[in-house]
Amino acid sequence: MSQLLCSRLCVTACSRSLSFSSLSRKTGGKWKLSRWYTSHSQTSTQPPGNPLHRIWNLTQRAIHHSTSRTSKSPGLKFILGPAVLTVSARLFCHVACCEADVNNNTPEEVILKDSVPDFKWHILWEFVKPQLFALIGAVVLAFGAAILNIQIPLMLGDLVNVVARYLREHSGTYVNEIKGPAMKLLGLYAIQGLLTTGYIILLSRVGERVASDMRKTLFASLIRQDVAFFDANKTGQLVNRLTADIQEFKSSFKLVISQGLRSITQTVGCFVSLYIISPKLTGLTVVVLPCLVGAGALIGSFLRKLSRLAQEQVAKATEVADEALGNVRTVKAFAMEERELQLYAHEVDKSCEMNENLGGGIAVFQGLSNVALNCIVLGTIFAGGTLISSNEMSPGDLMSFLVASQTVQRSLASISILFGQVVRGMSAGARIFEYLSLKPTIPLSGGGRIPFHSLIGRVDFMNISFSYPTRPGHEVLKKFSLILPPCKTVAIVGESGGGKSTVASLLERFYDPTNGVVMLDGLDIRTLDLAWLRGQVIGFINQEPVLFGSSIMENIRFGKPDATDAEVISAAKQSNAHRFIMSFPDGYNTMVGERGVALSGGQKQRIAIARALIKNPSILVLDEATSALDAESEGVVQEALDRATRGRTVLIIAHRLSTIQGADLICVMSNGRIVEAGTHLELLSKGGLYSDLIRRQRAEGQK
Ligand SMILES: Nc1ncnc2c1ncn2[C@@H]1O[C@H](COP(=O)(O)OP(=O)(O)OP(=O)(O)O)[C@@H](O)[C@H]1O
To answer: Would you identify the family this protein belongs to, as annotated (predicted)?
Structure first.
């Protein structure tokens, strides 16, 4: 907001200067010029008859004296001060505006919030390399546009000098006099327009291509990470890298090339122009500059602090609402609506108060900026007029100084905004690159072998010890050993948290054991091709199957991307899904909704079974596949599972003991170890943990 205001004022001041010259051409008279300027000052921001008006008249008289060469100027010392303000106070306003960039994080905030990893230039280079020609083109065009921008103030000065000469000498016709420099200027504007269009087109092409390459590479890198990586990193955070961070990086990248290059070139170039026009004014500017930057930084940091506090308060209020709405059933069950309402209202009131304070701060700041901006323009005209009257400057020089100083101010303001943007962009880039250079500890491809012989399907867990990487101190499996004989069904039961699902995860090679080996047909699974192992050997069905938001056909085909429609239908028939699928109007083309919301639990489970069966796996892992279903659904799904498990090595992780009584081997797990093993009848006759579990479940079932 404050920046907007500043730019508006900057544009106003600039357009005043430009219109000043153009009107002088149109009217051809100095007093008309003054009337125009005075009336504009009055109608836009100044009350009539204010001191500004008087200063302008004095300046105008000085110009008049200068052109008629009849009088001497007042002392230079009285006028240099205001002129210096032209550049420096505008800079002050811009710096303060940037500091008070209340809607964005400032560099310091970004640095404090995240511990930013190193920015890896070589990774950026890999993305930029394919776009190098377009990028060089954009840089050259942007540079050209900036160089022309340095020329424009000087040419405007020439134009004003022509007007002034005409006023003085009245030689030739006005149009003839002005035609040459005006046409040159027009030509310059046209070329600058073309260069600007060209570099923006090229730059946005480069930016978009770099960003889309980055997105694809980042997604590829993320999706290939192992499961442990996803245990340690929140999904929201990862999605943020793909969206917000890449967007931020792209904006910064484009801004640095366009605005950065242009602003630096213009600042240096226009400073040289300012020095050539008036070394004294320029010298004083350089002296005053640091004080104003300091003052701007102080005001800015105060406003920034207010803004941060207000934002934190808004976040607190949102948190309260989020929690209440997210747990609305609990809130209602305890009749706590009123209490939640009060909590929310309290936080919202606090945030309102803080935002009002911030608004007040910004308003005072903007008021000061406004006054400063107007004073500066007037100061320059006053000072410039005095210099003109002492023959140290021509009216054209004054024009050039005004426009060049405005260009410097705008460029410096852009650079200070840019600095924040560069820090934000580099932090975003560093976070993206951090994930790009990650290597998965269990790579999907990487030289693993595919056995030549057809699989027998024997699995050996040999002396396995395992801790999850996110909890290295907590040993989940302790010297765990188990054999899954080929084409037999082995069930694991036991207390919650005993490590049953962990066994299945190790077979899928979601994790590697800390000690011990998992063997498939006598081969260490770490030596096998992982994509083959997961894609063709092992079928996995868990308690809450996750479907993708596409059609039923596509969801089943997820198990085997090259499967024909006939194969999909056959898998659906095996899993008892065909009939219900055909009862939908769109059949296999029915969309299942996000995460399968448009289907019942039993229907989703049968589609998941079809998805696992379509790849005809030698080994099937069922992790509590029926425990979330009601009795009726369980019957249909169980029937499908019985059919699916025939002729395969099956590992069942079970809660409901009724579903595994027919298993060839039942293992009871406790505290990361197998404590009992045998058939259902053998274990019952032992009267140990298993019969306890059965007794408890029967008792619960009778309640
Ligand atoms: N991704 C993980 N990261 C860290 N610890 C985990 C992770 N998954 C499971 N654990 C821990 O490992 C232990 C065994 O969990 P596991 O899921 O294998 O038990 P379970 O026997 O299948 O339990 P349940 O029957 O309740 O599903 C538990 O203490 C659990 O907290």
So the answer is: Belongs to the ABC transporter superfamily. ABCB family. Multidrug resistance exporter (TC 3.A.1.201) subfamily.
**DSSP H or E run through 477:** strand 475-484
Residue 59 lies in a domain: no
Looking at the fold, whether 397 and 473 belong to one and the same domain comes out as no
Q: Which residues line ligand 1 (CB under 6 A)?
A: 231, 468, 470-471, 476, 496-502
Domain boundary among 370, 405, 437: 437
Cα of 500 from ligand 1 centre, angstroms: 8
Long-range contacts of 594-603 (CB under 8 A, 24+ apart): 594/549, 595/546, 595/547, 595/548, 595/549, 596/545, 596/546, 596/547, 596/555, 599/547, 600/633, 601/628, 601/629, 601/630, 601/633, 602/629, 602/630, 602/632, 602/633, 602/634, 602/636, 602/637, 603/577
Task: Note whether 250 and 378 are same-domain residues.
Answer: yes
- Tell me which residue has its CA closest to atom 2 in ligand 1: 468
Closest ligand 1 atom to the C-alpha of 228? 1
Measured at the CA of 87, the angle between CA 84 and CA 91, to 5 degrees, comes to 130
Closest Cα to atom 12 of ligand 1? 476
- Does the residue 2 lie in any domain? no
Closest ligand 1 atom to 655 CA: 25
Domains identified in the chain, total number = 2
Pick from 402, 437, 472: which residue ends a domain?
A: 437
Three-class secondary structure of residue 480 per DSSP: strand
Q: How many angstroms does the Cα of residue 671 sit away from the middle of ligand 1?
A: 11
Residues 421 and 494 placed together within one structural domain of the fold = no
Same domain for 129 and 205, yes or no, is yes
- Give the CATH number, domain containing residue 510: 3.40.50.300
**Residue 465 sits in the same domain as residue 388:** no
Residues 432 and 481 in one domain: no
- Give, using CA atoms, the residue closest to atom 1 of ligand 1: 231
**What gap in Å lies between CA 475 and CA 499, rounded to an integer?**
10
Reduced to 3 states, what is the DSSP secondary structure of residue 498?
coil
**Closest atom of ligand 1 relative to the 231 alpha carbon:** 1
Q: Residue 429: give the domain boundaries.
A: 121-437
Helix, strand or coil, per DSSP, at residue 671: coil
Report mean pLDDT in 10-residue bins for the chain, 703 residues.
37 34 35 34 37 44 42 37 41 43 40 56 90 92 85 83 79 79 90 91 92 93 89 82 88 85 82 81 66 69 83 86 84 88 94 91 79 70 80 82 80 76 84 86 73 81 93 90 92 89 92 93 89 87 81 90 90 87 90 72 86 88 72 71 83 82 90 90 88 82 60
A 10 A CB-CB count for 281 gives 24
Whole-number Å distance, alpha carbon 503 to ligand 1 midpoint, is 10
Query: Residue 387 in contact with residue 78, Cβ under 8 Å?
Result: no
Neighbours of 441 (CB within 10 A): 12
